[in-house]
Design a protein that fits this description.
The structure is a single chain. The chain is 26% helix and 24% strand. By secondary structure, it is an alpha+beta fold. It contains eight helices and 15 strands. The chain has a six-stranded antiparallel β-sheet, covered by helices on one side. A four-stranded mixed β-sheet has the order 1-15-13-14. Strands 2-3-6 form a three-stranded antiparallel β-sheet, with no helix packed on it. The protein is elongated. Mean pLDDT is 78; it is low at 42-53 and 232-270.
């Protein structure tokens, strides 16, 4: 019945065809230009509309101060037989406790005990959690802001030359940094740092390095400290910056992140954005952990400009207020 009505309407009204064609044209145009809010192929949209519809989620971060710093001095000379030299940089008086030949399984059991049983804020607490599953222990007192070099090694009469074939059941060295003063543990969220260090031996000759670092919080959590990859081809350290302003900016950024040289991948002019080559790098891209974009360029990317991996999350190293304070300090 409806079809008969439309045929009759068309026969008696030639304008009906024109109205139908015009209506179809308007609807098609609206769909293409997005008048109705429906998605259309990205190729038909400009870059600003694409950026809005595919915005990368910004991870909510909480800034905490890490009172501990630890790095390996001359890692190429370290071995099981000759020992290792560690450099500490702590904001408060601390204790460095080294556990040689620590059981892998007992260490991870100890980290779980920090979450569910008791807080590992002292060397004795970790020793209790490990059930003494290590071969040798040594302890050193670290003075505040001293940047001491600590030489650690197994006893000379110890005949250990390796810890077995890979995968081994023991880590060569586990270093624990804790606050020496009990009152200081009430000030900081991070109460201890566990560093797992590989030292080459007769069987496994991988170069000396820090394999893992775990930050233990007073609230009962622990976090794996990850390396950030900066943007270009030289060291992102104040000593390699050309001007005094660049030195202050680089030093300030490292202090805020509490990163040592070993925790930042080498890069040249890495404080410059890889896109505009002008803004200061401020954004960490996840999951690739490349740190290569400034505030102005970050909003235009859904893929990492270095490795092309799609971004899941991102977070800023410094807030805008902190950047403005740093600029005022350098003036």
């Amino acid at each position: 019945m409806a079809a008969v009505f439309l045929v009759m309407l068309y026969e008696y009204s030639p304008l009906f065809y024109i109205v139908v064609v015009f209506t179809c044209f308007v609807v098609t145009t609206g769909l293409v230009l997005g008048w109705f809010g429906w998605d259309v192929p990205v190729i038909l949209r400009n870059s600003e509309e694409t950026q809005v519809s595919t915005r990368v989620f910004k991870k909510q971060m909480r800034q905490v101060k890490n009172p501990f710093g630890l790095e390996i001095t001359n890692p190429s000379s370290a071995s099981i037989t000759t020992g290792i030299t560690l450099t500490t940089d702590c904001l408060e008086d601390s204790l460095l406790t080294c556990y040689w030949g620590c059981s892998v399984q007992k260490l991870y059991d100890a980290l779980q005990k920090h979450v569910y049983c008791f807080r590992i804020s002292t060397p004795q607490a970790l020793e209790d959690a490990l059930y003494s599953e290590y071969l040798y222990q040594e302890q050193y007192f670290i003075k505040k802001d001293s940047k001491e070099e600590i030489y650690c090694r197994l006893p000379r009469d110890n005949k250990i030359e390796d810890f077995g074939t890979v995968p081994t059941s023991r880590y060569p060295l586990v270093a624990l940094l804790t606050l020496a003063d009990e009152d200081d543990r009430e000030i900081y969220d991070i109460i201890s740092v566990v560093s797992v260090i590989h030292i080459p031996d007769r069987t496994y000759k991988l170069s000396c390095r820090i394999l893992y670092q775990y930050l233990l919080l007073a609230q009962g959590q622990f976090h794996d400290l990850k390396q950030l990859f900066m943007s270009a081809n030289n060291n992102f350290t104040p000593s390699n910056c050309s001007s005094s302003e660049e030195k202050n900016t680089g030093r300030s950024l490292l202090e805020k992140m509490r990163l040592s040289k070993s925790e930042v991948e080498p890069s040249e002019n890495s404080q410059d954005c890889v896109v505009c080559q002008n803004g200061t790098v401020n954004w960490v891209l996840l999951p690739c952990r490349h740190t290569c974009l400034c505030d102005g360029c970050m909003k235009y990317f859904q893929q990492c400009p270095i490795c092309r991996q799609f971004l899941q999350e991102s977070f800023a190293l410094c807030s805008q207020k902190e950047q403005d304070k740093d600029k005022l300090k350098t003036l």
